[in-house]
Amino acid sequence: MCGIVGYLGKRPAQPILIEGLKRLEYRGYDSAGVALCDGTRLSVVRSVGRIGNLQQRLAARGDDPSSLGIAHTRWATHGEPTEINAHPHTDASGRIALVHNGIVENYASLKEFLVGEGLAFRSQTDTEVLAQLVGYLYDGDLASAVRAALGRVQGTYGIAVISADEPGLLVAARKGSPLLIGVGDGEYIVASDPSAIVPHTDRVIYLDDGEMASITADAVRTVTLDNVPVDKTEARVELSLEQIELDGYEHYMLKEICEQPATLRNCLAGRLDVRDGRIQLGGVAAHLRQLATSGRITLIGCGTAWHAGLVGGYLFESLARMPAAVDYASEFRYRNPIIEPGTVVIAISQSGETADTLAALREARERGALVLGVVNAVGSTIARETDAGVYLHVGPEIGVASTKAFTGQLAVLTMLAMTLGRRRHMSIGMFESLLHGLSKIPDAIARALEQSDLIRGIAARNVERNNWLFLGRGLNYPVALEGALKLKEISYIHAEGMPAAEMKHGPIALISRGTPAVFIATRSEQYEKVISNMEEVRSRGGRLIVIGNEGDKQVSGLADEFIPVPEVPEPLAPMVNVVPLQLLAYHAAVIRGCNVDKPRNLAKSVTVE
Ligand code: M6R
């Protein structure tokens, strides 16, 4: 995700800012930039790609003694990863510069207002809207202008702002996006993450949500966004750099599993409008009519993304009553697929760089399909080569095993299926009830995560078994496939996922005393049938590890190991039910001593066919 560093002190700011940005590199970014103030004017330097590119540009300008500056690594959300979209952004006068983490949800209406006031915009970003708004409201008092601007903003932010007209001041504010102030000897370093300040100081002031700081050479004045003074106490940072980057987690995979309540909130933010009973998917808005009348929708992807596609296929059929096919991207391409006028192909990819998916979408476009992307990495090749799409907004995924991208993909596909369903036949009552349910999914995931210790125990008791089955029906069948994939790719245990009813057609021969059979048996239309399948396994000596709804005595009574999850509306259950399976695979891999974040033979992004 994006990173912020700001410096005010006696030393040249530039090397400190660059070093800080490098310490934030692990968070993922696609462009970077710096604004420096020499006491009379601002200079802004930005570049696409690695921080090395930015350093080269700065080096070409020669030494800069400025001791006030802000810097940023951007992970694109609104607008492509281009130099013009990189932060810092400036106001119309070019004398105020701002860096921002988060999303300004009402940026479109603010921009419309500012354009009406005669301001011109250079970038496609929500952040430039905020910078221009601060400039528009500025009358010689930067802190007041920032506070007034934030009063008009809906969304999340961590920001740092400087002005050439007040060269002894750095303003910082936070709401929903972390920001802290490192306190040194006559100097202050603002950062979105402690790793940027630890080389300089271990003294830190953590801003809380809704707080703003005005930092000058000799003081930090902290107020609420309503301008009520707040007394802050300094804390000590006692973590090593590696611990900081992992935010206290042992592995990125665990961190990414655990941050899913937050990443899903981000994915839904600005799209779900529960109050007005609407879903807004700006990226595909222009194509909704074609989508809703399409005679054929094909979802393509690989690995986890394909599993998300399978869930999406069920949802398009059941919620939107539309014919949907799901294909491995690698197979689609060589199958001579039928593309008729009106065919829509949806390419799903976390990285946006998977070669098989890319080749398949090129084939589909070539044959005249409308191709939409459900992609995480903004500006990636797949995002650029699709006709339109919806980004996941779940932040960079570093662990090779895909986790938070899967739940993000499910959330986007669910929103899409609901939108189409509503356009076609879905009643307002059903739509609103699903909308409400979807808004509660981050909380349900947080509850599922509470079972981590229980799941670790289950993994420990079964980790010596070398063959596992994962079984589910309906929407839980792709979840079973995903559980099996997670286990095999990071713990190297052989696992097979399948529809629970298919087991009796062959795989049941694999069951012997103690074979772990992981069932997803949450309440659904096929609940009773899944219970029968569990009985079949039990009577052959298999060991039942069952994910069921909290308080379900029937299922827990049958299970050898029971993992409770909250009950949510059936179409939304995969987002919750997959979480224990991610944790099961994670704990099994750790117990077996495997390299969780970089499993053998695997790459994060598979860019060869
Ligand atoms: O970046 P993509 O979503 O296109 O990647 C697709 C697969 O390579 C990916 O999901 C892979 O299966 C993961 N390692 C699964 O955890």
Using brief descriptors, characterize the structure shown.
609 residues, alpha/beta, Glutamine Phosphoribosylpyrophosphate, subunit 1, domain 1, Rossmann fold, 3 domains, six-stranded antiparallel β-sheet, 21 helices, 26 strands, 37% helix, 22% strand, globular, binds 5-amino-5-deoxy-1-O-phosphono-D-mannitol
Written overview of the protein:
This protein is α/β, with parallel strands linked by helices and 609 residues long. It is built from 21 helices and 26 strands. The strands form five sheets. It has an eight-stranded antiparallel β-sheet, covered by helices on one side. Helix 8 runs parallel beside helix 14 (404-424) and helix 14 packs antiparallel against helix 15 (428-439). The chain is globular and about 80 Å long.
